[in-house]
Amino acid sequence: MRGGNSSAKVFLLHIAVIGILFALNFILPEYHHGVLARVMVLSVVAMGYNMLFGYAGLLSLGHAMFFAAGLYGAGLTAYHFGWAMPAAFAAGLVSGAVLSLAIGLLALRTTGVAFMIVTMMFAQVCYLLTFYFSEWTRGDDGLVLGQETRRLFIGDFYLDLTHPATRYMAALALFSVVLLITLFIVRSAHGRVLVAIRENEERTKMLGYDTFANKLVAVVVSGVICASAGAAYALLFGYVGSSFASVQYSILPLLWVLLGGAATTLGPFVGALFMYYVVDITSSYTSAYLLIVGVALILLVLYFPKGILGTIRERWIRWLP
Amino acid sequence: MAFGPHLLLAALEGLVTSAVLALMALGLSLVFGVMRVVNVAHGEFFMLGAVLAWWIASLVTGHPAIGFLLALVISPLIVGAVALVAERLVLRRLNYNPEATIVATIGMLYIIQQLALTFYGPQARPVDAPFTYRILFPWFGYSGYKLSIIAASIVLLTATWFVLTRTKIGLVMRATQYDSETAQAFGIPVDRVYAGVFALGAMLAAIAAVLIVPITQAHYLMGMDPLLLSFIVVIIGGLGSLRGTVVAAVLIGLSDGIISAFFSPTLAKIIATLLVAMVLVFRPQGLFGTASR
């Protein structure tokens, strides 16, 4: 299964997915073009979530805080200090790294149900903080980043990220980088240790692996990936608000990953894309989209716990990463 | 108002919160203790209880007490039935796997919330209190109904304690909590105990909601804050411990009442949530609980 042949197939598959997404930029109608750009950014959150939940087996209910860390890290520095795009994006990544390191050091002392509740509570604290500092964040109303802050200067030449095609390409660039990074991580020694921890932590510890350090790395990697999506969301779509830190944005990545297939590299994207269109299509019939999310969650855990790509891998394509 | 009376008022408000919180947290704690299920939909059972109370009271004409008492009986029964169906259809099929049940109860949360929004609407609606007698303190008048909530809660908590420790039903429940496999081997219908406990937990939340709805009004989003507070209470009190739950509810309710009377409520929530997360990290068995087996 791990032969050179399947490595080549895996690599080609991911390149092909990125290639198709690149080609879609030129043929998609305007509406779906915009949707896909958004879905690519959101599925980066799901990929970050998948690192922790799918591979390391740690179910967090607080990933909205990492997304929000990136969102506010980039948004606040760009809005209040007028930082240029690369600096603001880096600020988002740094705040995600710092937050996830702190949360990881604390929350990883717990396991199982306690881990879920602790992460949920830390995320709730972060959500409330965005209201407490509403002088800076404007709470629910949020901040809107103007067009002039969303330009990427390269010498005298600049890229305008409010332009749909540029925005799509920026989203695709982030998506591709993160996809290849996750592919690399899950095929590395560290990735295998994470899977071993998920399957049997005691045994992994007994084999001499430092499980705490491995899990901590996973939390930070997962947090930074989610923060990169948050920072990109702020800069690409120009809106920074408290609702992105709410518990709903912790649940949605879980739903996307479950739907697409936990512990598959492409599952998060498939899940996010599928769910986005399900909500989009049903919302033309009913406003009750939370109902769909709820029913989907229950049906998934009841009948389809491996998700779309997880099932495909189990039944047909064994080499799917 | 001078500081002393102000503090008394804040403490009374806090005690009313504690009374309701204790009932609701007790439901959450029972479900977790016996079934090892973290019921994230618990707050929605609370909300459902309040919304149904408004609906029942609005159907009845005449003295408000009639509608209120009817609601106090019927609303928990309906909520219990809903919980029973949910348990049979979903939780049992998941084999009570802790992680899967959390995801499933999150699903229930969204479904109940959305159905309430669709059929009940986004408005907040009050239920008339059964009586409006005011008790006059030297400094301020205080609603007699609020004090009766505290009394009702004490009666219900005592009754639950009595059932748990002094009756056959309680014995069966404790046996299931202690070791469900051995209980099964001794002929206890563990499956039915689980269904009953889940329904009972939801009914306690619904009763708490009916008691509080004359003060706060029924609204489809009202379940979220009590859910978090109940989590806090259950964690501080030690998961599955009745005495710890009651002590923690009084502690949290009082401090919530007093802190939010004198400081910013958002800050109070931030500090409380952070403290509880720290308790869970550094003392997972709770402040009053003993170490888990």
TrEMBL record, chain A:
Any one Gene Ontology molecular-function term assigned to this protein's record: branched-chain amino acid transmembrane transporter activity
Q: Which UniProt keywords apply?
A: Cell membrane, Membrane, Transmembrane, Transmembrane helix
Q: Does the keyword Cell membrane apply?
A: yes
Membrane topology is:
Multi-pass membrane protein
Q: What is its main location?
A: membrane
Q: Where in the cell is it found?
A: Cell membrane
Ranges that cross the membrane: 6-28, 35-55, 88-107, 113-133, 168-186, 216-240, 252-279, 285-305
Q: Superkingdom, according to UniProt?
A: Bacteria
**Entry GO terms, CC:** plasma membrane
Question: CDD domains from the entry?
Answer: TM_PBP1_LivM_like
Answer yes or no on keyword Transmembrane.
yes
User: What is the protein's name according to its record?
Assistant: Branched-chain amino acid ABC transporter permease
Automatic annotation (TrEMBL), chain B:
What family does the database annotate?
Belongs to the binding-protein-dependent transport system permease family. LivHM subfamily.
Question: How does this protein sit in the membrane?
Answer: Multi-pass membrane protein
Q: Does the keyword Nucleus apply?
A: no
Q: Where are the transmembrane segments?
A: 6-33, 45-62, 68-90, 102-122, 142-164, 193-215, 227-254, 266-283
Q: Name one GO biological process term.
A: amino acid transport
Molecular function in Gene Ontology: transmembrane transporter activity
What does the organism's lineage look like at the top?
A: Bacteria, Pseudomonadati, Pseudomonadota, Alphaproteobacteria, Hyphomicrobiales
Q: Which UniProt keywords apply?
A: Amino-acid transport, Cell membrane, Membrane, Transmembrane, Transmembrane helix, Transport
Tell me if Kinase is a UniProt keyword of this record: no
Against CDD domains, the record matches this protein to: TM_PBP1_LivH_like
According to the record, the signal peptide region is none
Q: What is this protein called?
A: Branched-chain amino acid ABC transporter permease
GO terms for CC?
Answer: plasma membrane
Q: Where is it located?
A: Cell membrane
